[in-house]
Specification:
This protein is an alpha+beta fold and about 170 residues long. The chain is about 30% helix and about 20% strand. The protein is built from three helices and seven strands. Helix 2 runs antiparallel to helix 3.
């Protein structure tokens, strides 16, 4: 039995078509189009669509995973980890109603995470507006002005950010 190398394409009777992403002494790690990552025995029943020789300079599963994480970070609506200012770590946010209802408390890190998610989603919306082929230039400018005002409304939360570069920036006074 000849060992398949990383990058070989196969078709498995149960999992369908896939690509070998790692090889161990007993298993192939195969990423299948329909079923995701599965490990199958080296002597499993499958058809080889395209064999790649087992070479020393192949890409490992770790490299594939690291590349995928980078791609997801670049193109998803979740971005880099944003640090909360040290003075707020371990703190809590307390909302106290004016009438005699119970207070609402939450860890400030939870609140901060939600603020960062809002910021990241606004950035994605901004990118989609700017790359839209359905909006004319004036519509893009108008929507960008609304986004700038949203950022301005959120500047009150800048006190939570550790790094100034992560903070909200709204319209600057002239």
């Amino acid at each position: 039995m000849k060992l398949l190398g990383i990058g070989s394409r196969i078709e498995h009777p149960n999992y369908g078509k896939g690509v070998v992403t790692n090889v161990s002494s007993k298993h192939y790690w195969v990423t299948f189009l329909e079923n995701g990552l599965e490990t199958i025995a080296l002597d499993s029943d499958f058809e080889t669509i395209e064999a790649v020789e087992d070479e020393m300079d192949n890409v490992s599963f770790f490299d594939v995973e690291r590349s995928l994480v980078k791609i997801l970070e670049k193109w998803s609506d979740t971005h880099e980890k944003v640090a909360i200012a040290d003075k707020w770590k371990g703190g809590k946010l307390i909302l106290e109603p004016g009438d005699n209802l119970a207070n609402k408390e939450m860890p400030i890190e939870t609140f901060f995470h939600k603020i960062v998610m809002v910021r990241d989603r606004i950035r994605v919306m901004e990118q989609k507006i700017n790359s839209s082929k359905n909006l004319d230039d004036q519509e893009k400018v108008d929507l960008q002005q609304y986004i700038t005002r949203i950022y301005g409304s959120l500047t009150s939360f800048n006190v939570l950010f550790k790094n100034k570069s992560d903070q909200f920036i709204g319209e600057r006074s002239k």
